Amino acid sequence: MTITDTPRAQRRAQRPGRITRTAVPGRDGRSSHPTRPETRRNLARIRRDDVLRVVGAAAAAVAGTAWLFAQVFPFEGPLTFVVIAYLLFVGFFVVLISFDDNRVTVIDRVAAVVMHSLAVVLILALAVVIVFTLGRGSEAFLNWNFWVQDLSLAGPLDPMTVGGMAHAAIGTLIMISISLAIAIPLGLLCAVFLAEFPSPFARIVRTVVEAMTALPSIVCGLFIYATYILLFGFDKSGFAASLAITIMILPIIIRSADVVLRLVPGTLKEASLALGTSQWRTIWHVVLPTSKSGLMTAIILGTARGIGETSPVLLTAGYTTYYNLNPFSGPMVSLPFATFTLVKSPEPSQIARGFGAAAVLMVLVFVLFLVARIIGGKGAGVLSPGGQARARAASLRDAVRFDQRVPTTPDRLDVPAIPDDQEVTR
Amino acid sequence: MSGPNILEALDVSDGSRPQDDSPRQLTTVRGPSDTVFRVAAHGGGVLVLSIMTLVGLFLAVRGAEAIASAGPSFLTEQDWEPNSGRFGIAAVLFGTVAIALIAIVVALPLAVGTATYISEYAPLGLRPLLVGIVDLMAAIPSVVYGLWGMFWLEGAILPVAQWISTYFGWIPIFNVPNFNPGDPLATPTVFTASAFLAGLVVAMMVAPVAASIMREVFAQAPIGEREGALALGSTKWGMIRSVVYPFGMGGMIGGAMLGLGRALGETIAVYLVISPVFVIQPHILQTGSNSISSLIALRYGEASPFELSALMAAGLVLFLITMLVNFGAGIIIQRSRSGAAS
């Protein structure tokens, strides 16, 4: 049926600008979906009593612990102080609540305190990891030469003003580029195969890929070492390390890309196929763009994992203190591998250089991760505010274009497509 | 050309020849581009499958050599001297499992607590930031954790290990035979480079991974059930215990097992902090431990072809254990109520 079947629709067709019933998102000011899932409300209320109890228990605990340390027990060390203060705090807190409330409330409040403190412990410990690495590494990476020189001229006893980690950074970049050049096309192709061509064979491939995500990274290195280097007789090189990294990150990328691709709404694919598009074009123009952010996240997380892993490189790349830009010959070193080698040295300056390399590596991973967060982390087809605005603008442009076209060719809509068919069927 | 006409027409055509009303054979005619694409995609799948099976098969074949020559003593022998024929993974396997278990015992409460805090207690404005921090931690390279364990944690943990050994030494695993707490000159160096230290370092690596999975699952607990529990007079903890945890149980177990898989395979952080020994070391606080992956990192360099095959066999055992744990985790996550959405 065409839209001009009823007299009312024909009248609508005569009126310029009123032909389509296409709802343009955002045209009426409502940009959100009417049946969007309900959001969580914040039901937490903090009463003055709660705050006062926490403050009071904390003050009593600190004072009590200080008194214990000074007068009663010969304990020492900040860690012991914190542990005893914490235990006392929980004790005082329970006593304070039990003045006013019943047992159920006491358990509730204590559980809240325990959850808060577990989270604080974890995040604090992780903060210590980062600050410690950056702090120890700053001795090395605050010197400009750290960023531009290699270690060939710097002996173990030389000061921090000689030598740097540029060769390791370049090695890392070369290795990860080669791995990604293999892993991205192959991984995405395989993920598309798994998601778009379901078959018993695809299930086998998926199972094997999932099994291989469990392959310990050192075993990837061992495999390349035993085949590429010992069996085929090539030297240790950056390329061998790239192959080991590829084998490690390939299952990771395929698995997360497969999950993202399967989240693409079937309606979008069916709409595209119903318009007569070939499967290849559907995947290229609908499936991949829809899941773009998720795929980028998969790739970047795989990259972060590949950059940071030491053990495959340890077995396959060899160690060097020189620049080596050729991945196919001669040893090549990466940042984590350089860190690993340097901190095993007894010399403080070498250890400091190792920390510097670790700090640079960590910052590199953070930057990659932030990029992944910014472009990714959204579900398939969920647009960023900018993307939403662009899509809305495109819809509006289309609507305006339709509006302008209608009056000039009004009879195009009355082309009797169906009567022809009727003639045929009769 | 109105609607009813068309329907009538269809009725007529169908009614006149009812025997035609059977499923038609629908054939898909693919264009050349689609055919090429299908072949390419299948080729990608075949290629990946063959690479992955090649790795697995190669490991199995090379490892089988060593296992066949060692026989059942491969699982019971503690020494690692493949060239003289005496080698087995009893000691390293014990060390691997011990370190992984210590790691998971420490990491599990931290991960559950952090996940619960982020999903239930943290202020709404702070949540995205905390989620980002925890996910970021999961991406920190293991060598960084190794450095931290080697240069910072080792010193900080000595008094703790000494304290545990002094007061809980009567529990066999915490006993340290060479350490006499009554002796004022006793040196704490017997506590360095222990399985306990390695376990703590690996726990720090594993906790963010597990916490990030658990947090995702907890956040999916149905809002209706949450508010229902609160409306029935439950406290917040009661709501968490009766709605969020049962809902997220699959995610909790699965996250812990994925963390365990990561802990089992960890190489560099363990290699940096332990001092390798080739005996079963049941005293976890005492110096010396070992793991399969650090054994490979330690011995691959000067390995003879046969020794390499023995290392492959050890790697194969590690791979099989990790795979088992990962598959178990996957099945548990999928079977659980929360797994359907994730």
Order of helices and strands of chain A: HHHHHHHHHHHHHHHHH
The top level CATH class name of chain B: Mainly Alpha
CATH class of the largest domain in chain A: Mainly Alpha
Estimate the helix proportion of chain B, in percent: 55-70%
The average pLDDT of chain B is: 84
What name does the CATH topology of chain B carry?
MetI-like fold
- For the record, the count of structural domains of chain A works out to 3
What about the largest sheet of chain B?
A: 2 strands, antiparallel
- Assembly annotation: heterodimer
In CATH, the architecture of the largest domain in chain A is: Orthogonal Bundle
What is the percent of helical residues of chain A?
55-70%
What would CATH call the architecture of chain B?
Orthogonal Bundle
SSE order of chain B, one letter for each helix or strand: HHHEEHHHHHHHHH
Structural class of chain A: mainly alpha
* Ends apart, CA distance between termini of chain B: 49 Å
Could you explain the architecture of this structure?
The complex is a heterodimer of chains A (426) and B (342). Chain A is mainly alpha-helical and 426 residues long. In chain A, 70% of the residues lie in helices and 0% in strands. In chain A, helix 4 (103-141) packs across helix 15. Chain B has 342 residues and is mostly helical. Chain B has 12 helices and 2 strands; from the N terminus they run H-H-H-E-E-H-H-H-H-H-H-H-H-H. Chain B has a two-stranded antiparallel ribbon. In chain B, strand 1 and strand 2 (86-87) form a beta hairpin. Classes of the chains: A mainly alpha (426), B mainly alpha (342). The interface between A and B is large, with 107 and 105 residues.
